[in-house]
Amino acid sequence: MPVGLFRVCLLVITAIVNHPLFFPKENGTVPENTEEIIQKMKEREESLRLEQLRLEREIADQEASQKALEKAAVVVEESKEEKVRWDMWTALSMVIFLLIELWRQDFQEGNWQDVGGEEDDMAVLGKAFKGVAFPDKAVLASFYEKRILGTTGDMARMREMVEGFADDLLEALRSVCNRDADMEVEDCMGVGSMYENWRVRKPFVCDLIVPFAPPEPYCFRCQTWCSGDSFPPDEQGYGTIKVCRADEDATGCICDKTKLGEDMLCLLHSQVSSTRPSREMEDLLCFKNTQYLDADQVMKWFQIAVTKAWNRISHKYEFDLSFSLLDSPGALKIKFKSGKSIAFNLTPVVQYENSDVYFISHFPRSSLAADIPSSTHWFLTFAVYERRFIQLVSKTLPANACHVSCLQILSFLHGKQCSLTGPSGLTNYHLKTVLLHLLQARPSQDWAPEKLEARLQDMLKFLEKCLHEKKLYHFFIGNGKVPAELGFPIVFQRAEPLNLFRPFVLRRDIYRKMVDTFHEMLRNMSALINEYTVHIPLAHTNGIRKE
């Protein structure tokens, strides 16, 4: 009980002591401080709320911009994929369109037939040959004896006369040239149909090539399209000839490729010699401001040299000599007082290394080099090897083989047809290339004289196949089967085959003319041959015979 009363009293006393009315001065500012604190807290709360709103807006803006960037990236990626798909389909559509167009044009021409799998590799003659009577052995033998065989003696006499005069003319040319400054001219060589004994069309024209070399201390460095450097497709078969000093590296001195600076001097080339290379190169028949031999400059030099040489020896001969073609450097014509004339070509060439391949400046009466890229590009001729190959193969053939007769007859028919309908892209060189391929493909016994008719048909079949495919490959370039006895340069054997019909792929007008001329020749063949053939009983004239 006392303890309880004590607790009650202690509680009352504590309440009285802590009542605020007992201490009015100490506790009078409490209500004011509380309101100020509450006001500051409210202001702080408001500022925090505003800051929160600002941060929320910034976060929202960043998220919106990020979404926009992601959306833009997706759109760009989709557009790229769509563009790639569109480009692919566009290219594929154009290819399909071109293939359809080419097929349509070939189909509309209607001159070719499908070749079955059982046909011979040389293909069969096309529709234009259907129903055309092919002369038999008797007619062909009579035609050959009457029209062609008698020209052999005339060719031999003309070759002898032209070669003798050409040797005399070149000797005079050497005497009028400056040995220290002018080109050095070597002996001439006969090439082409006159020296391969298959030319039949008159007038007879001898083709002679004359190698020449620069004066000492210079030399020629030749570069061909198959030497490793890249040449455009339209320059295949060509090469360039660089005039260099004999002691100069093939790649040239480094001073020509590097700026040495004003205080440096090349020990090999003095300042004096570097001030006159342009004029010196022009004197060496180079193209302006280059070291490359210019075919046009060579043509002018050769014509002037030949004129001087003729003036020196003209008193020895009872005929006149003149240039027959202005665009050919050595197209010469001998005119006798009787009115007769003899034409021959004396063409300057440059030897390729130590071989019998030559760079030729011009092809007279030929379309082989009709579109020369520039005057510094020289066409390569393999005429010497072609002549040697024919001579080599002839030794393995039967006596009186018919290979030359086939080429003579075909050349005669083609020449006659061109005289009727005008010239075409097809040349005698194409015909000879066909023969060279068949000589390599056929065994020796197939060229016996009694098989003239069959081999002539083979040549026509092969030629029509080439016309149909627009492919007639050069015999030597890319041919790994060239006999080793010829000593043919291996660099040309390893080269890509050269298509002689490539210029006609894009020039459809010339190609169409060439095909029309060929088919017209087939239709007129019997009439052309019978015109120069003695009468033969009808029993001997048959249609096409297949061996």
From TrEMBL:
Topology class, membrane: Single-pass type I membrane protein
Transcription among keywords: no
Domain of life: Eukaryota
Cellular component aspect of the GO annotation: nuclear outer membrane; plasma membrane
Transmembrane segments: none
Keyword terms: Cell membrane, Coiled coil, Glycoprotein, Membrane, Nucleus, Signal, Transmembrane, Transmembrane helix
Intracellular or extracellular location(s): Cell membrane; Nucleus outer membrane
rRNA-binding as UniProt keyword: no
A Pfam family the protein falls into: Mab-21_C
Gene Ontology MF terms: protein kinase inhibitor activity
Signal peptide: 1-20
Domain Mab-21-like HhH/H2TH-like: 404-477
Coiled-coil portions: 38-72
Family listed: Belongs to the ITPRIP family.
Purpose: Enhances Ca(2+)-mediated inhibition of inositol 1,4,5-triphosphate receptor (ITPR) Ca(2+) release.
Protein name in the entry: Inositol 1,4,5-trisphosphate receptor-interacting protein
Taxonomic lineage of the native organism: Eukaryota, Metazoa, Chordata, Craniata, Vertebrata
